Every structure is written in C-alpha cells, then in structure tokens.
From TrEMBL:
Residues 174-200, 488-528 are annotated as: Disordered. Residues 513-528 have a biased composition (Basic and acidic residues). It comes from the Bacteria. Residues 62-169 form the MobA/VirD2-like nuclease domain. Transmembrane segments: none annotated. This is Relaxase/mobilization nuclease domain-containing protein. It holds the Pfam family Relaxase.
Length: 528
C-alpha cells in the first residue's frame, strides 16, 4: 500500500477535483467510504457531485473558520493510499476499515485529543489500474487546536507496512524488507502509450540491465552487453577526474521527435546501482581501467574498446560445462540459512537476470519469462545491509544468464534449454520455500503464482526430460539420440516456437534493439 502525502489550503478545490472527471477521465462514481461520523451521517456512500463536494468541503473546514486557527504550511492534509494493480480491487468496506485505521494511526483521531474532520473518497482505478482511496483531513481539530503532522511521510510508510501485514496485503519491498523497486510514473506510462511500447521504459530497461549485469563476468563486459542490447549508456564521471566512473544512466532509443529518457541505475532498482553491481565483479586496477575505457567509449559514441565473449557464439562444450556448474546450485541452496538475506537476494537477482536474458532473446514483447524475471527482481532487493562480495567458487546463476543470452546466436538446441530451465525452476522453488520459512507469505504466494501459471506454460513448450536422463551430463548426446530416432534434423528455436500453443515467438532472432545497435556500432554515433 503506497501512501502519497500533499499539503494545501484549498479544501474546496481538492474536493472538486476528487469528484470531477480526473486528468484522463479516470474518475468514476466518486463516493465516500469513510469519514468523521457527522459527515458520514449526512452524505453516507451516495455518488458525489459538485454540490456535494462543496458541502463536504464546507463541513470539513468549519473548525478552522470557527476558531480562526491558521497553519503556515496549510491546514489541508491529503494522502492517497494506493494498491498495486496485481492486488486486484478491494471492497468499500475494506477501504473504510483501512482508512479509519490509517487516520487513527497517524494520530488524527483518538488518543485523548479532539478529533479532526476527515473523509475518504473513492473514485475508481487510476490510469495504471491501481485501486486507491483519497484521505482528506483538516488539521485544525474540533476544539481549534492543531494536529501535528511532524514526520508524517515517515510515519505513513511505517503505518502502511503495519496495515499491509495486518490485512494480508502485499508488503512493499522498499518498505517492509528494506528493498527498492520504483513504480513507473504517470509520465512514463503516458510516454510508453504515445510511443506504442508495451510497457514503460523503466521496466524494460530494468530487465535489460539486470540481464546484462548477470551475464557479465566483469564491469567492462557489462557496459558492452548493455550497448549490444541496444540501450544508450551514459557513465557518470567523478568531478575532477577523467576516468573515474561513479554511476550510470541508460535509455531506450527514442522514436523520431522524442528525446532519450535516461534513468539512473539506482532508480531502476537498488541492487542495480553501480556500487552494488561492482560487489559481484573482480576488483583490481586492471579491471577498473578496462571498465573505464568502455564507459568512456559508450559516452562518446565510439566502438567498444575490447569486445569479448559477448560477441562469441557459445560452443557445445561450454554449454555442457556451464550446465554442469548450474546443477550445483540446488545442493548449495540447501545449506543456506533461510535468514541469510544477503545470499538469497543475490541468488534472486541472478536468477531474475537469467530469465530476463532468456526473455530478451525469445519474447518479441514481454511475456511469461519477463514476468518471472520481474517477480524475482522484487525478491532481489536486499533486506538491511548491502550484500557482501560472494566467495570465490560460490555457485552462481551468471553462467545460466550467459547461456540464455546466446540462444539466438548459436549454442545448444531446446533439450539443453530444457535442462537449464529445470535447474532454474528448482532454484525458484528454493527461494519460495525460503520466503515461506521466514513468514513472508505474500512473496511466497507471488512466486508460487508465477511458477504455476507462467513457468508451466514455458515448460510445456520445451522437450520433456526423462527421469535420470543423461541429458544433464550431455544434453547434446541426448538430442542426437532423439533426432536419430525420429529421422529429422536437430530442433532449433524456430521448431520450439512453431509448436501449437507455444508461449514463444516464431523465431529466435536478435531483438530489434540489438539489430539497431549492431548496425549503429559499425561506424556511427552509437549513444547519441
């Protein structure tokens, strides 16, 4: 539940807006769901019009007018309480309960002091599909004293978290677990619609950056993979230096007539800030120098300085070796304490990156793989202290992300992908069990949903693996044996996608952004 607080002086203007059509005609059937007893006795839950809005505003403002109490920053306190679209629509009765407990929890009613006058207005879903309610409070109490809004934003966040847990609502990561995932703004949603994109830039960029970061074994490769994915990259150079990079921003290529919309890594997600990403890469003067060279080349629109494995096709032998490495993950996770959030967050981030990399290669528009990546990314936001650098030899999903980044550029057929998918699914199941073990029921339920509804569809499009199959050790041999038995060429990505009911597109080809980046990288201003 997301509280958003504003202050002002015009009760009449605010009420007229709340019962009006809204900025995009999104307000429908405005009505009260809760309020102080006197106002609710008069207006109840009937649909409101302009006349009713004026009457309510007048009733709310009466204590201030009667006592002449003035509050320098404004006596009108307004807070919208919003739920994510994924939580569905609540009843009026539930919103009344939440609103009343929120107002009391903020200290505006009860507690031995005179109450304030307040109402909660509901008028349909937002343009983003979020169910919400608007709470309007007159900070002048019934006896003319002032309600104290000191540190109200901090108090509202804490109280919202308490109400989420009490009423079984989704506990927001950025508050309940010290995590950080920012919802798209109205401007971002409107821009995506204007440009004909299926989702706001921030969501697309988050998956691209996470996929690139997870698949990269060092920072320089990370920069090159982002550029190869077609995004514009701008490294932030520290003041007084020419080669010290302290942060970065990325943008999708704009349509004609629009300027690039750059988003900082930290605003994509806390664990995508450069400081956090660097904790997972080698730290040495040589790596820092190589990374700085790539950041500067990207900033100035030059070719990559030292292209690496991101431009190479993955060989069959590399597939075998990396899949064997991934098989160690389940055994490793069984030894990780459920309260070791540094480790679980790292694994969630890497697994999210693997699904994001796969989605980038095979989903023309964000589909089930992208949804799984987004869900796991919410589990990746660290609780409390930042993660420590993983020990050398610790199992990782980086290899899986690198493999899945290559499925459109050679590499194994669908049997090997099925083996890798099985291992990814086992990792996701382990994360769900960890959430359950610490009582994070909402997160566990969300992971269970994407596993049951979305991953099942992906699995149906992949070859079935026989129990105790040798494919884990040698997927290529299993594929060759199966092909020989039916007398046809090996499966390709196109074969997988052409199956009736497949969730994957008809071709496993580089995304449009990658193709644009490849062409632009052959001699022009890549980043500008």
């Amino acid at each position: 539940m997301m509280p958003n607080i504003t202050r002002g002086r015009r009760l009449g203007g605010l009420m007229q807006y709340l019962v009006g059509p809204g900025r995009s005609d999104e307000h429908t059937e405005p009505h009260l769901v809760a309020g102080d007893p006197a106002i609710m006795a008069w207006h109840d839950t009937a649909e409101l019009d302009g006349a009713a809005a004026r009457e309510i505003a007048s009733a709310l403002d009466r204590p201030r007018q009667l006592f002449g109490t003035e509050i320098p920053d404004g006596h009108v306190w307004h807070c919208s309480l919003s739920l994510r679209a994924s939580e569905g629509v609540q009843s009026d009765e539930k919103w009344a309960e939440l609103s009343s407990e929120f107002v009391e929890g903020m200290g505006f009613t009860g507690g031995g002091k005179a109450d304030v006058r307040w109402v909660a207005v509901r008028h349909g879903l937002s343009t983003n599909g979020n169910d919400h309610v608007h709470i309007v409070v007159n900070l002048v109490r019934e006896d003319g004293t002032k309600a104290n809004p000191y540190r109200d934003r901090v108090r509202a966040q804490r109280l919202a978290g308490e109400l989420e847990r009490k009423h079984g609502l989704e506990v927001l990561e950025e508050r309940g677990a010290g995590r950080g995932e920012r919802s798209p703004t109205r401007a971002e949603v409107e821009r995506a619609a204007r440009e004909g994109r299926p989702e706001p830039h921030r969501k697309t960029l988050g998956r691209i950056v996470r996929a690139a970061a997870t698949a990269s074994e060092n920072e320089a490769e990370f920069v090159r993979r982002m550029r190869r994915s077609g995004v514009l990259v701008d490294g932030r150079i520290a003041a007084g230096t020419s080669d010290v990079i302290t942060g970065y921003s990325v943008a999708l290529r704009p349509v004609a007539g629009e300027r690039p919309l750059y988003v900082g890594g930290r605003l994509l997600a806390k664990d995508l800030s450069l400081d956090r990403l660097r904790q997972g890469w080698p730290d040495s003067p040589e790596h820092a120098s190589a990374a700085a060279a790539e950041w500067i080349a990207a900033k100035r629109g030059r070719r990559p300085v030292a292209p690496g494995r991101e431009v190479e096709e993955v060989t069959d032998q590399q597939w075998h070796e990396l899949i064997a490495q991934q098989s160690q993950m389940s055994k490793y996770l069984s030894s990780v304490p459920v309260d070791d959030w540094a480790t679980w967050s790292r694994v969630a981030s890497e697994t999210s990156g693997a699904f994001a990399a796969w989605s980038r290669q095979v989903e023309a528009t964000p589909g089930p793989l992208a949804e799984v990546a987004d869900s796991l990314a919410r589990s990746a936001q660290v609780r409390g202290p930042q993660t420590a650098r993983p020990k050398v030899g610790t199992p990782s999903m980086r290899g899986a992300a690198m493999l899945l980044s290559s499925v459109a550029h050679g590499g194994q057929g669908t049997v090997a992908q099925a083996v890798l998918f099985s291992q990814l699914r086992a990792t996701v199941k382990a994360m769900r069990q960890a959430h359950e073990a610490v009582g994070d029921a909402r997160r566990a339920a969300e992971i269970e949903r994407v596993m049951g509804e979305r991953l099942a569809g992906v699995r149906a499009g992949l070859p079935k693996l026989q129990p105790k199959t040798a494919a884990v050790a040698d997927p290529a041999a299993a594929e060759a044996k199966r092909v020989a038995s039916i007398g046809r060429r090996p499966f390709t990505g196109a074969d997988l996608a052409d199956r009736p009911g497949s969730v994957l597109p008809a071709r496993l080809t580089p995304s449009r952004q990658e193709q644009d980046a490849e062409r632009a990288g052959r001699g022009s201003d890549l980043e500008r």
